[in-house]
Amino acid sequence: MPTLTLRGWGFLAASVVLFVLAPILGQREIAFAASASLTLPLLSFALVAARRPKLTVVRRFSPETASAGTDCEVILSIQNWGFAPTPAALWHDDAVAPLKRSSVATLPALPSFRALETDRPRVTTVRYLIESPRRGVHSVGPFWVRFGDPFGLATRRFSVGATDSITVTPEVETLSRGSFRLPSGDGQAMQSRRPSASGEQDVIARKYQTGDSIRRVHWPATARHSELMVRQDDQHSDHEAVVVLDNRLDSFVHIRRGRSDKAQSDTFEWAVSMAVSIGLHLLHEGYRTVFVESHDPAPPHSNERASDGPDELLLRGAHARLGPEHPPLAVSDIVADAGRVSGELPPLFAVLGDIDHQSLDALTRAASASSSALAFVVHDAPKVSAESAPEWAQQLCERLTQSGWTTRLVSPMDTPSSVWEPDTARIAR
Q1: Measuring CA to CA, which residue among 296, 325, 321 is closest to residue 308?
Q2: Which of 95, 124, 199, 365 is the most exposed place for a label (fewest CB within 10 A)?
Q3: Which of 242, 235, 241 is nearest to 185 (CA)?
């Protein structure tokens, strides 16, 4: 419904006062002034109530997928499909927390639509920046327009269009490029995954597959075959690595310990950022990377389990959620599958919370099926020293170490690059 502005309410109050003063002062002119003061806001109210603009809005994001902590440009294309032009108005674009709605701005007058003159109305474009402070899939919209009458006595607000979703990927860091080494598969010495210094020796070109690093594209072969080809360094093109993200609610939320939801959320957000950073780093190093969550819809022995590319990894990170009914970690079969595909034991990386005994047993078995295993145990206690970490985290690290894992206690106050560097040398030996 329309509403009166402060000016409109002022006119109504003035009319009431004048109607009271008219008989007291005995001046008929005051009664005429009171009538005019009452009529104007009522006419404005009726005019605004009768206006029903036919607007459409198309919302686009640039970039289409935002990164946490960055700004994204929202582009709104507005059209007036009505026979009457619309006056200048105020607009804002709504959003659902943690995003913030746009500031109020002026929408210029929109011309009317003449079907005999053009196929579609003229497009008016407005833009604004929206901050994406947290990863996830967030709703933006609807678009709101506020029209008023020429006297500024009444306004009416309309919502135009529906909401759109923007995907915000987790904040990632570039990790140091350690020379991860894998067995050659025939019992010989360890060989590096990196190409030789010449860059083109022992290079075999093959078709691009999902998960291949774009840096491995072989442009001469691509031009020759008219399709995207990548370098295959001898028999090492099928090596896989497995990254495990613990996303079970019980691993990060312990009400009995009095932890706040915000602290738990920050801890899990850090875990997602670390896991995705590791996956992207492995892809850049030339690995086919399998990203595993506690609750994975693909069955453990499915031949359809595919490695994830950079875009898939970022989207997996954006959609990662804590789930209350996630089963124990079941990664040993997944690691074994990766080994059967590549013919060699894959390296294994895990970002964990307070896991249960069944998950710990699964990780123990997985370590024996991997060439190397590195685990980051995330806790939310202030990071002063390893001894200041919660008891459960210290015990978990101890048991994982006994099972053949290289472990590191981390907290959200650390950066992924700082906790990665000390262990890359150990895992690459």
Answers
A1: 296
A2: 199
A3: 235
Q: Is 12 exposed, middle or buried (0-12, 13-18, 19+ CB in 10 A)?
A: middle
Residues 256-282: pLDDT tens digits? 344 545 555 788 999 999 999 999 999
Query: Mean pLDDT over residues 67-93, rounded?
Result: 94
pLDDT tens per residue, range 28-56: 788 888 888 888 888 988 988 888 889 99
- Alpha-carbon distance of 232 to 340, in angstroms, equals 19
pLDDT band at 296 (very low <50, low <70, confident <90, very high): low
**Alpha-carbon span 20 to 51, nearest angstrom:** 34
Query: Tokens 């089963």 correspond to what residue?
Result: 327
Integer distance in angstroms from the first to the last C-alpha of the chain? 72
Angle of helix 416-427 versus helix 261-284 axis, rounded to 10: 50
Q: Are the C-beta atoms of 87 and 110 separated by less than 8 Å?
A: no
Amino acid at 178: G
pTM of the model: 0.75
Q: How many Å apart are CA 70 and CA 225, to the nearest integer?
A: 39
Mean pLDDT over 194-218 rounds to 58
Count the Cβ atoms, other than its own, within 10 Å of residue 104: 10
Cα(339)–Cα(345) distance, rounded to whole angstroms? 5
329: tokens are 């970690």
Give which of 114, 132, 130 is closest to 122, Cα–Cα: 114
